[in-house]
Design goal:
With 597 residues, the protein is an alpha/beta fold. It contains 13 helices and 29 strands. Helices cover 25% and strands 26% of the residues. The longest helix has 29 residues.
């Protein structure tokens, strides 16, 4: 390092001390000098940006807990594929799908492992944007929120690349607010050489009230869809053609351009044959159909991890593709469930929870997912390792972890005893270190001690469950549910595990009003968010088996705990699902003519 460079570095270190002492953020210009990235190409630089390696290693994989399967009489064998609708934060689910890919559980008909096609329409609003009052504070808040949002999305894009198969494609649907930033992120993650096209979709949204245009500027009528592939040369692309009638009357094989003006999307109209949901931001099926047909073949796996109204899985189903749909919103999950069940000749699909679990179903996990669940719950890192041919499943604070699942213990018909620990010690001695953690179901130990010393090794006993509700949800952040339609597509991050805890509800239906006398959420919410009602989902003609979403009342529809509720719509029975802002549900069935529950 030359003398001039050393002088600059010394000065920057000295100046940086002032910021550290004041607990302030070191300026980015200083960060570049102190921590040079070594990268030469163009990249976005902002505070809090982590390396791809850090992100992949830090994000935890979460097991998928099957909630229900459609049709209910479908019997899935172990190796059968079943389409997946998943409630949970997509970042944790994506890490799980990476594990599925590694195990050969995401197989396309051509033998490739991973997702063949990804389409996402990510949100572009966060509650962090509007928390301060003064203009100076607001400007700073916007910049920070902007950086936070970019990193929030970048983490997911990095994992999406990991789960994509080698000849796969990804389409990212954006508006004009963030497209420039996201294009740079996509170039960093997928490589500028793998950029295929920037598709412009003419959305043709009318801004007319009476005879007046509402827009004070150029009329905004476009969306951008960034299209990348994982490989520069090896990827699926089925070219689409439009028919052109020549002056002579002949019809000519003209390829579709990357400006799409033929797919309509304006208020009140999605397409004559489109399913009409009440979910905001629903996209027309023709848009997704074009993308799926272009970049996948029949039987390939298609993923949408911001599934919204469910257009992607619905169209993938119709085009004979396998699909995975993920969303962090309960409204989305019930909207998609209804939409799929109203699709003709639907293939079997299952609804899963990831991150918010039913404790009673814990032991219904298969052996792999049970071990994954309990290791994550105790803050262990899943990592298979053999010591003298004895297999350990993970580590905890650098110490090895051995997990015994209910399935294993049932097979051998025995409990874990002192003799079990002695046999482990005889096999590995002190090669595993001074501490070893043993995890197994509570009640499957033949002793009561929490620590057993054999030789110089301490065996630490972790029983499942062990105060689960308090112990391993310490770092849990909730999948925040919206309280009005405007916030349905907010950027949310939910990390860790929690258990379903139905809220307590006391309500009255009277004079076509739903009156909530008491609503108490039991979820453990930290920080600024309050534990409260998010929405009420309604099925006016509940058949006793399947909830079929008809309507939604958001929290902001209630005034003085009262909201309009048209009892004439009830056909014999109705089901109401009260959802708190952590995603917990209380399901209630009411009969026609019933005033109070």
């Amino acid at each position: 390092m030359d003398t001039n460079r050393l002088k600059i570095l010394a000065k920057v270190i000295e100046e940086s001390k002032k910021y550290i002492e004041n607990e302030s953020e070191i300026p980015i210009e200083f960060q570049k000098i102190l921590f040079p990235s070594g990268r030469k190409e163009c990249e976005l630089v902002y505070a809090g940006k982590e390396s791809a390696e850090e992100i992949i290693s830090k994000v935890i994989a979460v097991p998928l807990q099957e909630e229900k399967i459609f049709p209910s009489n479908y019997k899935k064998s172990q190796n059968d594929w079943i389409n997946k609708l998943i409630f949970g934060d997509n970042i944790q689910v994506l890490k799980s799908l990476v594990k599925y890919k590694e195990k050969g559980m995401l197989k396309n008909p051509d033998g490739t492992d991973g997702i063949k096609l990804i389409y996402i329409d990510p949100p572009f609003s966060t509650r962090r944007d509007f928390k301060t009052s003064s203009e100076d504070q607001k400007a700073y808040s916007d910049k920070k929120a902007g950086a936070d949002f970019l990193e929030w999305l970048r983490k997911r894009l990095i994992l999406l690349k990991e789960v994509l198969c080698d000849d796969g494609s990804i389409y990212v649907h954006l508006d004009n607010k963030k497209v420039a930033y996201v294009k740079v992120l996509m170039d960093e993650i997928f490589g500028e050489n793998n950029f295929r096209s920037s598709i412009i979709w003419d959305t043709s949204i009318p801004y007319v009230a009476g005879n007046k245009w509402l827009s004070p500027n150029w009329i905004y009528s476009q969306a951008t869809i960034l299209y990348y592939t994982k490989s520069k040369t090896d990827y699926v692309f089925n070219k689409e053609y439009e028919e052109i009638i020549q002056p002579s009357g002949d019809i000519s094989k003209k390829p579709i351009k990357d400006v799409w003006c033929d797919i309509k999307n304006f208020a009140g109209f999605l397409g004559a044959k489109d399913y009409k949901s009440k979910y905001p931001t629903q996209k027309p099926e023709d848009l997704i159909k074009r993308i799926i047909k272009a970049s996948s073949n029949e039987g390939d796996i298609v993923l949408d991890c911001f599934a919204g109204s469910g257009t992607t899985p619905a169209v993938a189903e119709k085009l004979n593709r396998k699909w995975i749909a993920i969303d962090v919103g309960k409204l989305s999950i019930y909207t998609i469930q209804k939409r799929l069940l109203h699709t003709k000749n639907i293939n079997p699909f299952a609804v899963y929870s990831a991150g918010l679990y039913d404790e009673e179903k814990l032991n219904q996990f298969d052996e792999y997912n049970w071990k994954l669940f309990v290791m994550q719950s105790w803050g262990c890192t899943p990592k298979s390792e053999k010591i003298k041919n004895f297999e350990f499943e993970g580590t905890k604070n650098g110490d090895l972890v051995k997990v015994y699942s209910p399935h294993e213990l049932k097979k051998i018909g025995a409990k874990i005893s002192i003799e079990t620990l002695n046999s482990i010690y005889l096999r590995i001695g002190e090669a595993a270190g001074r501490n070893v953690f043993i995890i197994a179901p509570k009640g499957r130990f033949a002793f009561a001690e929490d620590e057993i010393e054999i030789g110089n090794v301490t065996f630490n006993i972790l029983r499942v469950p062990y105060s689960m509700l308090a112990k391993y949800t310490e770092d849990f952040s909730i999948p925040i549910q919206p309280r009005d339609s405007k916030n349905v597509n907010e950027a949310v991050e939910s990390i860790g595990f929690d258990f379903v805890q139905p809220p307590e509800v006391d309500f009255l239906i009277k004079d076509d009003n739903l009156i909530i006398n008491k609503f108490q959420s039991n979820s453990r919410i930290k920080g600024e968010e309050e534990s409260s009602l998010s929405m009420v989902l309604i099925d006016y003609s509940y058949d006793g088996k399947i909830f079929d979403l008809d309507d939604v009342l958001y929290e902001n529809n209630f005034h003085e705990n009262k909201a309009k509720f048209d009892t004439s719509k009830i056909d014999k029975k109705a089901m109401l699902i009260f959802i708190d802002n952590a995603g917990n549900e209380r399901k209630v069935v009411i009969n026609e003519g019933q005033d109070k529950n």
